Request: fold
Amino acid sequence: MTMVSTLRAFSIPALAAVATFVASAAEATCLRLAGAPPLLQRAAFSLANVPAEQVRLTFVGHASFEIETAEGIRAVTDYNGYIRPARNPHIVTMNNSHSTHFTDVIEPEILLALRGWKNDGVLRHNVVVKDLRVRNVPTNLYPIGGGLAHGNSIFVFESANLCIAHISHVHHRLSDDQLLDLGLIDVALVAVDGTVTMTYRELFEALDKIKPRLIVPMHMISMNAVNHFVALAQTLYPVKHHDSDTIMLDARTLPLRPEVLFLKGR
Reply:
């Protein structure tokens, strides 16, 4: 197993005044069968206005979400440089090299830039920054035999006893090994276009096996695609719409049974 992380110089002036690593971050509730010791990154950050035992989730747009922890760590998924959060994050993930899902331009304030693909071999990330762990589950950009192997990753974010999986540009059914590697997922951020990524049949099959308590749509290519997804989803789950692009996640108050929640788009 190979662990590769892009570690950038961090611009906070007082790097000497590093924060103490919070051990609870390494005690996440996801069952990671492929486990490797995480890379612990100590740095100084300002505290966020996020209550303890909660995570703030904000839909930034397309396939990008901002995940913010109680200790002030901010991560953005599928960071592409032009769909941007209000503040530069500390960690960015990029699931594959599609132009709307990655960028080569990384601002100096970004501490870690984690790519989900590699030209040869399998790329693995498993890092902990204060109260946030980020790891990946390698997948294929296209079905095996039809394209680039290991050209994509699902990223998993673990904090406050929550496990959040960003299931972005997966183009195939998830294998049993990949499902085991994902572990116990509380919140699934899923692409709902139904054509560019997984088909709806493949997506609902994966969700049935993952069994997240909350399903948050993204990658909404058209209203026709969204309407098609909703028509199918509501035969399986309650489908709700939130009046904001932001929601506070708390493991203690998530739905007991899976439900779909659309965050307000930008």
Notes: The radius of gyration is 17 Å. The mean pLDDT is 82. Residues 13 and 44 are 9 Å apart (CA to CA).
